[in-house]
Amino acid sequence: MRVLSFLSPLAVAGAAAATLLGAGDPPPSSAFLSRLPDGVEKRKFILDCTGCHQFDGRTAFPEGKPRTREGWEEAVHRMLRYAGASTPFPVIAADRDPAKTAAWLTAHLGEAPPAAPTVTSPPPGAVITEFDHPVARDLPHDLMVDREGRVVITGMFTDRMWILDPATGRFAEERIPLERANPRALDIDPEGGWWVLLGAPKKLAHFDPRAREWKMHDVGMYPHSIQRDARGRIWFNGHFTKEPELIGYLGPATGSVRTFSVPNTPELRAGAGPIPYDLRVAPDGTVWGTELHGNRIFGFDPRTGRFRTFTLPTPHSGPRRVDFDARGVLWIPEYAAGKLAHFDPKTERFEVYPLPTRGALIRHIDVDARTGDLWAAYGASPGIPPKIVRIRRR
Ligand code: HEC
Asked: In angstroms, what is the span from residue 82 Cα to ligand 1's centroid?
């Protein structure tokens, strides 16, 4: 566990060095990304190439030297073999071209890596505590705080669940009784039960922490995001589904799964997928979803079975996780565009808020239900000086 306390303004003068984050670190990804010209091509690059790993010095300037055009071409070919549109993990768009990508990168990245890293200081008085995960190779994907204040975490690469006790800094593990369980998203219900999406096994699992009992349900698709509605139905989406793109729910009382086909994204070329991303149930019961590559949001009314779809105003903006305000107005972070979209379901119109800092890479936002203020974290890591932003509408 690493606790970083940031001093009050009075104490800062004498001990400034100790309050800085980033000193001695390598240059952040934003220093490399800022060399690429803004526009559609860059937004598409961010979507295709920064979802798994950063675009940092290790990627762009191995051992401090620029990667050659051939080197880039070879690397992109390799990435397409892992995650191209026709692989089982198709997160890279179908039109990603190794030769064109290599030419574009070498034309703009330059001969020498960027110099000094950005050094930042959090607000005085803040205490930041980092808890070291016991298994370095794990990918802690989603987390949620339970009723006792423990943090429940999905271990995507260790195939198990982790429970962090913030008081002691200890991690306990909870094994999932399934080979290669691949847990990703999580929701905790009012009774304290965990609902866990298992990606590769295409299952929705329920865990009762009191009885220590797991129950598995087949959902027939690689699920990505999860949320329980007011009637107790557990909604999920199919991350790689296309033609038809699918969402569905499990009825816990019956254990049966129902699925619904989202209207096809018109502008996608054959082979590409919309990459359904977030899924949230609005206060009025409408199920809203985002499409990371399809660049749309959709709203599904379970009472009428009707879908409505809306294309975001910025092409290839990369909408990720959304939130609602008390009136059910949606806020959508445009990950690749450095903007926030505000969508009013009454008027069905978008407003776009450009952010003051470039390279913000917003993944996740939260709306303060009491004030209606929108809070967001700039998620370039490492990147621009980390910032939290509040947006208050007139
Ligand atoms: C599905 C996850 C994923 C995506 C998406 C992805 N990568 Fe990678 N990338 C990896 C992994 C895993 C490695 C390490 C293994 C390797 O080098 O083959 C890696 C390594 C690399 C390397 C280092 C290779 C070397 O030889 O040192 C480069 C360069 C790279 N990626 C570029 C890209 C680019 C450009 C894109 C977008 C077209 C991209 N990556 C998209 C997973 C991904």
From this structure: 9
